[in-house]
Amino acid sequence: MKSFTYEKAQSPAEAAAAAARIPDARFIAGGTNLLDLMKLEVETPAHLIDVNGLALDRLEPLPDGGLRVGALVRNTDLAADARVRRDYPVLARALLAGASGQLRNKATTAGNLLQRTRCPYFYDTNQPCNKRVPGSGCSALEGFSRPLALIGVSRTCIASHPSDMAVAMRLLDAGVETVKADGSRRVIPIADFHRLPGDTPQHESALAPGELVTAVSLPPPLGGKHYYRKVRDRASYAFALVSVAAVVQPDGSGRVALGGVAPRPWRLESAEAALPLGARAVTEQLLAGATPTQQNAFKIPLVQRTLSAVLAEAKG
Amino acid sequence: MKFDQPAQSNPIDQLKVVGRATDRIDGPLKTTGTAPYAYEQYQAAANPAYGYVVGAAIAKGRIVAMDAGEARHAPGVLAVITADNAGKLGKGSRNTAALLGGPEIQHYHQAIALVVAETLEQARAAAQLLRVDYARSPGAYDLAAVRDTATEPAEAMPDSRVGDFDGAYARAPVKLDASYSTPDQAHAMMEPHATLAAWEGDKLTVWTANQMIAWARTDLAETLGLPEDKLRVVSPYIGGGFGGKLFLRADVVLAALGARAIGRPVKVALSRPLMFNNTPHRPATLQRIRLGAEADGRLTAIAHESWSGDLRGGGPELAVQQTRLLYAGANRLTALRLAVLDLPEGNAMRAPGEAPGLMALEMAMDEMAEKLGLDPVAFRILNDTQVDPEKPERPFSQRRLADCLRSGAERFGWHARRSPGSRREGNWLIGLGVAAAFRNNLVMKSGARVRLDRHGILTVETDMTDIGTGSYTVIAQTAAEMLGLPLDKVVVRLGDSDFPVSAGSGGQWGANSATAGVYAACVRLRERVAERAGIPPAEASFADGQVRGGGGRGMTLAQAAAEGELVAEDSMEFGDLDKRYQQSTFGAHFVEVAVDYATAETRVRRMLAVCAAGRILNPKSARSQVIGAMTMGVGAALMEDLHIDKRQGFFVNHDLAGYEVPVHADIPAQEVVFLDETDPMSSPMKAKGVGELGICGVGAAVANAIYNATGMRVRDYPITLDKLLPGMPERAELG
């Protein structure tokens, strides 16, 4: 870990301004991902801006019937909130499928959205990794790729996004509320929040330099039946090989988003029209153009089978 | 004391303390966080500096240049130790690769430097400032690719042949010829390798985490070029070993070198990412098994061949050794082949040989039973033997495999097993599996010293280790039984090279051998006490804190030691009973799994182990050993796999997020039953080991249950869902 300077932010706007002004600054909230990466010197911030005191830890109802989730609401608290459990059960289930109790107690809503890939080569500073050292190459492409992404990837990076929560947020069409360095505020639709790697896998979100996530707003409840089915090698405390988030309405329409297959939560609204036709039709559209490696090609039939089971359960 | 005749009746048979389910006497220290593990030896040496180990970034080649200038000038840095400034280092005979590499690099993450600083954080930060240029050499990293270059490791285990395998196999009406593979596995123990080293003049003390104190001292002496009497190795508490701490490792050597360089104690723990490539692992195997049987199910031909790899000078995984003894059959062949691989060093991990070997053999037995139309339990019982199949004149000292199988089948409800792929519950396919457990009982010379003080407190000192197994407690039970004392009058001090050399912890030999050593010392102490009391030793009896002789003569043990501490020391040496009788431990594992119809995820629902392993010294800690081993067996069956980058030559998933071991949610109800048994051939304790028996066969029992659930036979461990998916029924939804 490199030495760094530290400040406690006084307000979201000041935090954003400081982050834009000071070179190599990072926000820190729960620290469950950043601190590990700093110990390995995968991340080497020169300055940490601690946002934990910014009173962004509240859940508040929105006038339209939605729910605003403060950026610092802990994963444990979000999953346990009665409104979330009642109106957005897919979100509660996704949260509880992730990490461990101890980690969820620390991890925040914004931090979860911004957590970095678990590609093992990203974590090993001896190995080339375009996300860690742009231009150094991708070790995973021809290496160990079983857990990694197969759609939305590029020749420079096949890292998968590890979050469960973000998959549910994507399904719910959440909005990411931010404040920029100049104090202006905006809402980034979650669909636009995570970037695909292209030639710049080091850039993972639509956030501008210094821009701070202040909340995630959930639109009014969708109703329907909610599912979050996470498939993994062990029963708990493992990242998804694939996950399927779904909301299915009584008429068979609905929404589907996937985790574990792409550099971001993976949802194609156009594919959802095929839901009444069944899992195969939806999967074909969702994963059209996928470029799996030999090691992770199993994820394609796995997605279809998992979705199929979810849809069968929704029917039954 | 020499043990070369079957044990007679002796004080241990009273079973007032031994054989009773007993809480660990070291439990309160551990649950309160006050047991000083190596890295927490705060009282041992003042003001230690911190060392951080740097691992090589390549698997094979040379360091062309290393610039440590920036690291040396980083804040807080006291020294940077490398092969350039470490002085001449030797190598212990139990190590394959050098513990400090450079300029030659033999494997990925081989230690190439220790950065010593005032704080861990400073050492870690400075470690990143080392500039190392490497010249890579091509290496071999893929066992399958070099399989044909493998040779017979004649020293480790030559081929064994009995009868005419080829002829018998050719003639057998029912045959199986199948290939299996097991992956490289990591010990993944909770406590990483850690050492605090301090010099006093030319004398070095290391507080470390090591299973075998005497081996560590010998190999440290060889490595540093020092006489053994200048070295003290202390290892009272060990946070898991599983074989990973059998041998001297880099933390010890580097802490010693660092402390010498700065003239101050240094402590070193391997970082978690280094654990998987810097330290040894269980090597992968490719195995082929051929079985031939008569139509009635009697085996006539058994062949088991296994290929594994290791660094040049290393050894094979002994995956066929149990096949020489487990089942009857007149015509037999076993063969190991060893290839040179440039992956990190392979070595012992819990039940080395048996664990991967039985994953194959016991799956093959399941397949053969099906071919024969026999129940897998009945098939195994049919081919049971009471003698060494290679030397029929040599009987087993005890062998209750059939009892284990029968009793387990009844307890587990084995009769409910249906044909493969035919039992469903909701979204789950349900299957039952069985496998035999088999692991030899090894005996090792073991010594101890016992002291009786004027308060009637008995202190046992031996360099035996407790790696979480319960050694402290079984040793205390043994001493208490021998001297007629309650457990709370016994103090046990372990893991110090100043104490008599013991068997140490490995190969499930520890509990029986080390308590036998304590028994020997206690026999001597009983003589001293009797003499003090004026009682002929042969007439003395020990009970309730007193020694008594004929005619009501006697005194308390405190009185016996009132004039001065009574001390006795002895060791147990084992004769040839283990040559005349095959000593082994047996068990049967039963497993029920559920396989998700859609995703092919396998979840174990219940497990039972029935074990016959001699006298169980402490049923509570023995049960802990077995359920821990069963858990490890589930990991081997379902998830544990060191993934190799075959271009760069290293284990990629080198942390506990990437190398998955079972978590609580994976482990269901586990039941352990010990059959009542004493083995007078093993030692005066009449005990054997259980710590490795518990893992033997578990993987195959899980695999066989998966087959029973799904009708799919996966012979390539671990059985992850991607291997099952292609064979799962087309429709993912039930109904």
Automatic annotation (TrEMBL), chain A:
Pfam families in UniProt: CO_deh_flav_C (PF03450), FAD_binding_5 (PF00941)
InterPro entries, A to Z: CO_DH_flav_C, CO_DH_flav_C_dom_sf, Diverse_Substr_Oxidored, FAD-bd_PCMH, FAD-bd_PCMH-like_sf, FAD-bd_PCMH_sub1, FAD-bd_PCMH_sub2, Mopterin_DH_FAD-bd
Keywords: FAD, Flavoprotein
SMART domains found in the cross-reference section: CO_deh_flav_C (SM01092)
Cross-referenced PROSITE patterns: FAD_PCMH
Taxonomic superkingdom: Bacteria
Gene Ontology MF terms: FAD binding; oxidoreductase activity
Protein known as: Xanthine dehydrogenase YagS FAD-binding subunit
Organism of this sequence: Azoarcus indigens
Automatic annotation (TrEMBL), chain B:
Leader sequence segment: none
Residue ranges constituting the Aldehyde oxidase/xanthine dehydrogenase a/b hammerhead domain according to the UniProt record: 32-138
InterPro entries according to UniProt: Ald_Oxase/Xan_DH_a/b, Ald_Oxase/Xan_DH_a/b_sf, Ald_Oxase/xanthine_DH-like, AldOxase/xan_DH_MoCoBD1, AldOxase/xan_DH_MoCoBD2, AldOxase/xan_DH_Mopterin-bd_sf, PaoC-like
Organism: Azoarcus indigens
GO molecular function, one term: oxidoreductase activity
PANTHER family: ALDEHYDE OXIDOREDUCTASE MOLYBDENUM-BINDING SUBUNIT PAOC, XANTHINE DEHYDROGENASE
Name of the protein: Xanthine dehydrogenase YagR molybdenum-binding subunit
Domain of life: Bacteria
